[in-house]
Structure formats: C-alpha cells, structure tokens
C-alpha cells in the first residue's frame, strides 16, 4: 500500500473512531439529560418533573426505559398519586425481569463500546426498592394484603440473593419493620412479632420503635424474650392498647440517594481502568415529628446510601473481569488495524480511541431517598394533624386513627 493510500485509510479510520467516541459520550448520558427533572422533583414541582420525564423518554433510545419508569414511579409516589405509582412501578418490575435475560450480542457489544450503551437493568437494591415503594403505595390505600405481598417479595428475593447467589447482602430492616406493622394491623400477632424481631436484629438502634416488640412478646407468651427486651429497653413504655386507641407510623423518606462517579482501579496487569462508585449527596438529619403536644425524633431504620455501596461493591469484581476482557479485545482490534495498514500509528490510535469509549456507566435511580426514617405514636381514635420538620421545613398531614389499627403515613423530604 502506498503512503498516500495508507494515510487516507488512517484518516478515515480516525474519523470513524472519533465519531463513535462522540456518539458514545452523548447518546447514553441519562444523568445529564435528567438534570432539570431532578431540580423540579427536589422542589416538589411534581407536574413539571413528570413533563421533563416525558421529554427525556421521547429523546431516548430505549436503553434508559427502566430508569424512566423508576423515576416516574418515584415522582408519582412522592406526589401522593399512589395508584398511578403502583401502575408505573409494576411496569418497571416486569421490564427489570425481562432485562435479566441478557442477549449475547448486547453483552459482547459492551466489550468494545461504552457500557452505557447497554440497556440499564438496575442494581439489585434498586429492584428491591420497587417492592418497598409498592408496599408503601398499597398501605396508603389501606390494601394491607397487597402491601404484604410486596414485603414478602423483598424478603424472598433477598433470601435467594444471599443463600443461592452467595451475595454479601442482608435483609432490609425497613421491609421487615413494615411487615411487622402490616401483620399487626391484621392482628397476626406471631407473624408481626417475628418481623419486628428481625428488624431489631438488622437495626439494633430502633429505640422507641421497639415498643411493639415488647408488647407483642408479652402478648404471644414469649416471656423469656420479653424479660430480655424489657432489660434492653427499660424506658420504652409498652402497655396494651386501650379500647379507643390506635397507632400511627410516620415514614419519612429523607434525603437524596447517592450518585455514581468514576473511580480508578488498577488491575493485576497494572492497567488503570475506571469503574463506578457511589458518592453520598449529603446525609440527611433526623426529622422531628409531632402529633399534638407529643413530639419525637425519627429513627433511621434503613440507609439506602449504605445499602447501595454494599451492592455495587459486590458487582465491582464482575465489572473488572468484563473490563479486562474488553481490554484484550481492543488490543486485538488495534493490532489488526495496525497490521492491515502497516501503520503503527493507526494501531496505537485505535487502541487509544477504543479505550476512551469505555467509560463507566454512571446511571442510577437518583430519585430514591437516602434513608427511611420512622416515628411511631399511639393516639386516641379520631382525626389528628401530623407535623414533620426536616431541614427547617415543616409539613402537615391529616390522619384518621381507628381503634386497634395501625395507620401508615408516608412523606418525602429532601435535605
């Protein structure tokens, strides 16, 4: 091949590869395209946030469809549109299950292109959060049976991940505590006690939220356990509910879930590659909750910020293996390009551009809260005003308390 022809091939190849780099960098940046959505959402301008999501969905290639559904479901949930949120999150759950079956062509394609070019399938914890939010949605509609189905799905999925897939996860305290509340509301005392006890095992700092555990340990005849709990929580009053009393559980979905950012990792081959890591977007303070003259600090039962890091760190090993395979494939392509054109420069440039394309996937379900904080009250039957203060902002909600029932009240707070 003549020098002029070789230079022509080199030039065309450079343009093709550079174009691939540009498309790779622009096409899949869901995080950048949803910046306006997040601003509207965090300002509680939910209709505007939904409009922004519509625009994002129209512009997208379909690879972010799951994220669009997840964000839409969360916005609807935060807006109190429980039925709409149920419908959208159910669709997200179905799509996530379909995406579990990864096509060979898509998996192979990510070895040579940006990982952001694959359809987003969701982190393990994000899939679990679908059912947690669904349980809360159903609870707001007084559909305890449906809410319990979602809680049991969370627990069973985690059992499979831990026992069968050998992942270093643990059960979610928020799901277990919600299970206890729902079972108690249905007067299934033994099942309620079991879930409350598991929640305490997962989150030893429940404090006043341990009240039903003490009360139900005594009620179900677990007297040895009752004595241990009484010594552990000597200041937690736990008298049986009076005939005209009910309870309210306030669920504060607080703060902003962590976001992914690129982090350097050095392989055994001494190559430096980038992988996604979660970074906190601030830790929320504990909300203050009042009902009438009775006030208390909410208790953090589950930190999604912590759960997210555990789940992603477990996946890092598999990601590193894929990066190594990608580096080998790219080296082969680069060597082939250099040999074909007899140009060492083209080989080096090919390898450089292909590696530039391989950027970490920084997409995640960023509309989730950072924490689930709970506060619990026993109240006389009737209508009450619940006040929640977080980050200097106060929100009031009306709640109807029924004798012998446990009412769940959900609020979203951003701080």
TrEMBL record:
Q: Indicate yes or no for the key word Secreted.
A: no
Query: What are the protein's UniProt keywords?
Result: TPR repeat
Q: Where are the TPR repeats?
A: 173-206
Tell me the PROSITE patterns matching this sequence. Answer: PROKAR_LIPOPROTEIN, TPR
- Gene3D superfamilies registered for this protein in UniProt: Tetratricopeptide repeat domain
Q: What is this protein called?
A: TPR domain protein
